[in-house]
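go over this chain:
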Amino acid sequence: ISANTGLLLRNSDSVRYIPDNLNGETAFFTFTAWDQTSGTAGQTGNPAVAGGSTAFSTASEFATLLVTSINDAPVLDNSGTPNWIGSTEDATTAGELVASMLATGAAGNPITDVDNLAVEGVAISAISGNGTWQYNTGSGYTTFPTVNANTTLLLRAADSVRYVPDQLNGETALMTFIAWDQFSGSAGQTVDPNPN
């Protein structure tokens, strides 16, 4: 379809729009009037030849259709091994941004999201270690609450995490998380990522 090739439709014909399942938008098409004195519905005609005794109007108009955005869940590539900066058993780790940890994951960016304005974060569902995990959302470090698959701690990419070892033995402390796009919930809250 172009300025010289228009699809001919009668007022009794129907039109629908199939969104891309990714983002909201304002879809539109431009049209001229067609009096059906030449051409057949479903075929194409040349609306650039208009006015006078032709079947097409000289004026054109456009019709819009609003597609409302809905949130699409982020996708986490767990093929990598993201990690935090380590320390000795006697030293609290330096606070590190969640974004820095994510950058050590698959391809340096393990979270993807088809939504245009999506932002990154994590929902932490499990932690392990003999020491203490702490997080900072901007008001100082706080010890992690109890987390599990149904009670996850939300942290933004700009929030920080540190680990306080038990000063007794070396270990590999672990954290399990899923991606959070910040569409709902707030950093520092615990939420159920699987509501009924």
Observations:
- The mean pLDDT is 96.
- The first helix runs from residue 98 to 102.
- DSSP finds one helix and 14 strands in the chain.
- The radius of gyration is 28 Å.
